[in-house]
């Protein structure tokens, strides 16, 4: 089975009230863990590559690893560019075989965002590639994304409807209170479901995306802190809120920080318990197993896409 786009995935997800997991990938063990979990649970997958991942691992290596995952699993897998910030970067990803790309021009004015996005949509659609864009601004820091809380901005539903109509995009990331990174809320977590509901009414059956939607499992944060880490106050989006969003218009939920936290917790614990070990295969094996465990949990209990491949 070749790499697929997210078009049919989203159509089915919207109709049946669940979301597809879009997991950020950086190395072989992370990809193997995510795909193993999806294979166990017969779930469709979006594997996404950020600017930071491209710089760290080289997109050629990542694409070949994802192609190996498709061959090994037989699952429908979409390879997605996360937060492409220019036409040139989106074009490069499309030319190299990505089946889905995100153009993030949300830091521009609405008019400029529409202009840039339309250009990307035209190039991508002519080549059978789907396009995600963003309206509104999420706070937080993750890879190349760095938005101060004061600069964050909720999505305006009327502008969202105009944006989709004028650009021809295939999915839209909106800002309803999620944020990038592992420190998402200073007080009680809260999402603007009223905005999501209004967007759903103005854009019926149109796939909505949530960025910055990791839950930052507290038991894993505790392991990191126990074994030499320092992550006070780390917290994410409660999983019941994500499940509610998935039952509405949200068809794609991005998950990155949860993978990093679980991977790091497993490695810190292993080093503390095995101080004489130095073989990467020894400590990366439990780290990979931690990825399998967290992704399986997300697919079954949060996203609701287990058995949907």
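^ Assign residues to that structure.
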């Amino acid at each position: 089975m070749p790499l697929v786009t997210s078009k049919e995935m989203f159509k089915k997800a919207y109709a049946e009230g669940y979301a597809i997991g879009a997991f950020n990938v950086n190395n072989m063990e992370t990809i193997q863990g995510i795909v193993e979990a999806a294979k166990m649970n017969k779930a469709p997958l979006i594997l996404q590559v950020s600017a930071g991942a491209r710089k760290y691992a080289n997109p050629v290596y990542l694409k070949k690893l994802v192609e190996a995952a498709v061959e090994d699993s037989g699952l429908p897998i979409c390879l997605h560019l996360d937060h492409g910030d220019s036409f040139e970067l989106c074009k490069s990803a499309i030319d190299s075989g990505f089946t889905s790309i995100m153009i993030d021009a949300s830091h521009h004015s609405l008019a400029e965002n529409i202009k840039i996005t339309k250009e990307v949509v035209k190039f991508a659609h002519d080549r059978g590639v789907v396009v995600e864009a963003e309206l509104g601004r999420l706070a937080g820091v993750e890879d190349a994304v760095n938005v101060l809380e004061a600069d964050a901005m909720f999505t305006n539903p009327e502008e969202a409807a105009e944006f989709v109509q004028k650009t021809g995009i295939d999915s839209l990331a909106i800002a309803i209170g999620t944020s990038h990174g592992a420190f998402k809320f200073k007080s009680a977590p809260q999402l603007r479901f009223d905005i999501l509901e209004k967007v759903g009414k103005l854009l019926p059956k149109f796939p909505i995306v949530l960025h910055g939607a990791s839950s930052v499992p507290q038991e894993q944060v505790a392991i990191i802190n126990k074994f030499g880490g320092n992550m006070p106050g780390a917290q994410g989006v409660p999983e019941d809120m994500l499940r509610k969003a998935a039952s509405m218009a949200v068809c794609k939920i991005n998950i990155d920080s949860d993978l990093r936290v679980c991977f790091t917790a497993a490695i810190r614990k292993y080093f503390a318990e095995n101080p004489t070990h130095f073989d990467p295969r020894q400590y990366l094996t439990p780290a990979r197993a931690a990825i399998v465990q967290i992704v399986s949990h997300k697919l079954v209990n949060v996203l609701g896409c287990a058995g949907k491949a």
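The mean pLDDT is 92.
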